[in-house]
Amino acid sequence: MLAENTERLIAQFEAEHQALLEQARLRREQQEKVEQAAREAAERRRIEAERRRPPTAAEIASVEAQAKAVVRQKFGVDPDIPGWRGLVLVEARKLLGR
């Protein structure tokens, strides 16, 4: 073929080369999509694990006054008297998004 039609042979080689480049590009794009999906899934798992983690004492303390105000308003009770601490903690968790 080289002797008969050099231009045709070069065009065929070029077409094969372009096809290989396109296949490689498509593989890279597909791999990038898979990696992006894996990163997004890992981030969702991290967020869910953080949401499920019990709040620390410092986190509760940071919203305790607000939680007590909610308990006062919502239930009409004094959250500082014995027996209402659990309800204050429930409201604190809500305020923390947990």
Structure explained in plain terms:
This protein has 98 residues and is mainly alpha-helical. It is 79% helix and 0% strand. The chain contains 3 helices and no strands. It has helices at 6-52, 57-75, 85-95. Helix 2 crosses helix 3 (85-95). 5% of the residues are buried.
- Structural Rg: 32 Å
Give the helix proportion (percent range). Answer: over 70%
What portion of residues belong to β-strands?
Answer: under 5%
Terminal CA distance = 73 Å
Number of helices: 3
Spell out the blueprint of helices and strands.
Elements: H1 6-52, H2 57-75, H3 85-95
Helix pairs in contact: 2-3
Question: How would you briefly describe this protein structure?
Answer:
The chain is mainly alpha-helical and 98 residues long. Helices cover 79% and strands 0% of the residues. The protein is rod-shaped and about 100 Å long.
Search tags:
single chain, about 100 residues, mainly alpha, 3 helices
